[in-house]
Amino acid sequence: MLPISVGQLPVKRFKEMSLSGFANKCSTTLMRQFPPGQFGRYLLVGAWNTLFAYGSYAALTALLTPHIPHAYVLAAVLANLLAITFSYLNYKWFIFKTKGNYVREWIRCLAVYGGGSLFGIIILPVLVFLIRRFTPMYASAPYLAGAIIAASTIVVSFTGHKNFTFRSAKP
């Protein structure tokens, strides 16, 4: 037997908040992370960065495949390093518009993208295998897997760059 009744538990605070109140609170918190102008510019520049990154990956895959087994893995590593630097400069100059700190911000950008890139490079062979196993797209499997991985990083990378890579020093 509990020494207190359920009515005495400190859950009153949660009962008073309606589902719409909870949704509004979550929406407000989320919108603070994505200012409309900044996030819109991020999406436009991000589309360009994604085309560049995927184009680099596809070109390197096509170039290396005749010479190296599983070339798409090496292509992913090289394309990621190139694309991270390209994206960093675009974000610095056009989205977050920070001054100086090139090396520090680039290293932070590598950290934000690095985790996602590492995960993507690890999961890439698994996705290629699954696509080849369950679809008739054998030759295009590395390209489709690369596109799936690229599309999955948009929101996560924005919040990482906003809150870590390009965060302004607090006074």
Explained architecture:
It is built from seven helices and no strands. With 171 residues, it is an all-alpha fold. It has one domain. α3 runs antiparallel to α4, α3 runs antiparallel to α6 and α4 crosses α5. It starts with 11 loop residues before the first helix and ends in a 6-residue tail after the last helix. About 5% of the residues have low confidence.
As residue ranges, the low-confidence spans are 8-15
Q: Tell me the strand percentage band.
A: under 5%
Provide a count of the helices. 7
Proportion of helical residues: over 70%
Q: Helix/strand/pairing class, anyone?
A: mainly alpha
The counted number of beta strands is: 0
The string of secondary-structure elements, in order, is HHHHHHH
Oligomerization state = single chain
For the record, the count of structural domains works out to 1
Summarize model confidence as the mean pLDDT.
Answer: 81
> Alpha-carbon distance between the termini?
53 Å
Write the layout of secondary structure elements.
Layout: H1 12-16, H2 19-33, H3 36-64, H4 71-95, H5 102-134, H6 141-151, H7 154-165
Please tag this protein with its features.
171 residues
Summarize this, please?
The chain is mainly alpha-helical and 171 residues long.
